Amino acid sequence: MRPFIPDQDIGYFETFLESIGIREGGILTDSFGRIKRSMSNTSASAVRSYDSWSLRSESESFNRMITDITHDIEALARDEEEEEEEEDNYL
Questions:
Q1: Quick check: is 79 in a domain?
Q2: Which are the contacts of 20, defined by CB distance < 8 A and separation ≥ 6?
Q3: pLDDT confidence band for 16 (50 / 70 / 90)
Q4: Core vs surface per residue 52-75: b (16+ CB within 10 A) or e
Q5: What is the mean pLDDT of residues 83-89?
Q6: Same domain, yes or no, for 57 and 89?
Q7: Residues 32, 59 within the same domain
Q8: In this structure, is residue 44 part of a structural domain?
Q9: Does a structural domain hold residue 43?
């Protein structure tokens, strides 16, 4: 996503990624900075059956955050387009 983030906003973006556990390079970490590794199919199935609600909840929370961010970015783009149209009307 870095090519789509303006230079003046990259610091905010990287801080956000770190706050949700994603380090530089897109590496997902836990709260202690340890890299989260993928599980084998067997252990992943065991976790899903034991803790499926928790995983679904975290996934839904993350998806909701991404959706909110997307909506905010789209709203900013619309605001900018409206400002440009208003400027064109004055010329």
A1: yes
A2: 62, 65
A3: confident
A4: eeeeeeeeeeeeeeeeeeeeeeee
A5: 65
A6: yes
A7: no
A8: no
A9: no
Please count the residues of the chain: 91
Number of domains observed in the structure of the chain: 2
Residue 32's pLDDT is what? Answer: 53
Q: What is the pLDDT of residues 18-60, one digit of tens each?
A: 777 776 655 555 555 555 554 444 455 555 555 555 556 777 8
Q: How far apart are CA 16 and CA 79, in angstroms?
A: 23
Contact present, 74 and 66 (Cβ < 8 Å): no
Q: Which of 32, 11, 6, 13 is nearest to 21 (CA)?
A: 32
**Full domain range(s) for residue 23:** 1-36
